[in-house]
Amino acid sequence: RAFHLPQGYYLPKVPGTLSQEESTSEVAFIGNNNGDEYRLKFLKFLGRRYELTVWGKGWDALRGSCRVPGRRVFGEDYRKVCRNAKVILGLHSFLWMRSRTCTVSNRLWNVLACGGFLLYQEVRGFDLLRDGKHLVFFSGIADACEKVEYYLLHEEERRRISSKGQREVLEKHSYTSRVKEMLEVLSLCPS
């Protein structure tokens, strides 16, 4: 017997060094460059239209089209980026998207747990959170741009969605919750 156990959020207590100004942007992306051209082109395009900051390693090719601090963020710095960016972009690599259904990055859970407004690439079969209630999904670059534009202009709606997303994730999607789910399933399995 098998069951799917999604990731949850984990936010280590690591002191931060970022200032308010350094962690603030219209749009932010958190993740390392894995050499995927799709992501690179997507971020380059968005960076030319919006104030985009890309956090993570390996994004030198984006310099000139957006802000690239050239480092990863953890702990309190991660929280600051999520809280101070108006939109956090959840963007998968092309190969990742083609090979998976129902699976999301741990960044989805972490960004929402921090109270960030998450614009996330659609994932087939994912139904643990609701589009427009806990986060907002996009289907491609044109849809992402349209939604970035809309939510930059609608702060109250952005705050309402991020608040509901944070509440939902903190209540139901911690790793403690995941272990409880696993133990419940195991107790139902015959020995």
Chain-wise SSE layout:
Layout: E1 25-30, H1 37-49, E2 52-55, H2 75-84, E3 85-90, H3 94-99, H4 106-113, E4 118-121, E5 136-138, H5 141-153, H6 155-172, H7 175-188
Parallel strand pairs: 1-2, 1-3, 3-4, 4-5
CATH topology: Rossmann fold
Helix count from the secondary structure assignment:
7
Helix percentage: 40-55%
Biggest β-sheet strands, sense, barrel: 5 strands, parallel
CATH superfamily: Glycogen Phosphorylase B
**Termini separation:** 12 Å
| E-strand count | 5
Fill in the keyword field for this structure.
191 residues; alpha/beta; Rossmann fold; five-stranded parallel sheet; 7 helices; 5 strands
Question: What's this model, at a glance?
Answer:
The protein has 191 residues and is α/β, with parallel strands linked by helices. The protein is built from seven helices and five strands.
Structure write-up:
This protein is α/β, with parallel strands linked by helices. The chain has one domain: Glycogen Phosphorylase B (Rossmann fold, 3-Layer(aba) Sandwich). 43% of the residues lie in helices and 12% in strands. The chain is built from seven helices and five strands; from the N terminus they run βαβαβααββααα. It has helices at residues 37-49, 75-84, 94-99, 106-113, 141-153, 155-172, 175-188; strands at 25-30, 52-55, 85-90, 118-121, 136-138. Strands 2-1-3-4-5 form a five-stranded parallel beta sheet, with helices on both faces. The chain is globular and about 60 Å long. The mean pLDDT is 89.
